[in-house]
Amino acid sequence: MNVSIPPPATRTDPLLPEWRPMDAGDLKAVVALAGQLHPGCPERTDVLDERRRLCPEGCLILPDAQGKAGGYMLSHPWRMATPPALDTYLHHLPARPDCWYLHDIAILPALRGRGATHAALQIMTRLACARALRWLALVATEGAGPVWAHLGFTPTPGIPPAITATYGADACPMRRGLTST
């Protein structure tokens, strides 16, 4: 399924939450949110920090009303046929990525329903298109496949089962095509 590239979100758009860059000081909150919202997919702090260091523009924080981390997004360019296994180091980004990969997104229930996921997808779409990438990709976990399907993602065939298994029994690699129209 191809989707149009949405226009950039701006500060004047009251419907879209404002994501901000993640910094090293946010890692403690990110790990706490991950443990609370994704208990079946634990990852080490230094693995998450490596993603932040390798692709700072794709690693963001969604502040709550008090400015604290109420959500986060970890994303980066990657190769769709070989998503990184859970809790593994990347070491470097691929020289020739073919997708923008959403490693993880977590949003506290109190902040859901306000467009944060749509805003995150817009950000990732802009990042992907700036690199001439034609796909967004992810591994849906913990029953989230229907949510991602509703957002235009479809199952990605041919992913090695050994990688998918690191994400849990119900893990489903998914992708969404992008167009420049």
TrEMBL record:
SUPFAM superfamilies: Acyl-CoA N-acyltransferases (Nat)
Gene3D superfamilies from the UniProt entry: 3.40.630.30
InterPro entries in the record: Acyl_CoA_acyltransferase (IPR016181), GNAT_dom (IPR000182)
Ranges for domain N-acetyltransferase: 17-179
Name of protein: GNAT family N-acetyltransferase
Superkingdom to which the source organism belongs: Bacteria
Matching Pfam families: Acetyltransf_1
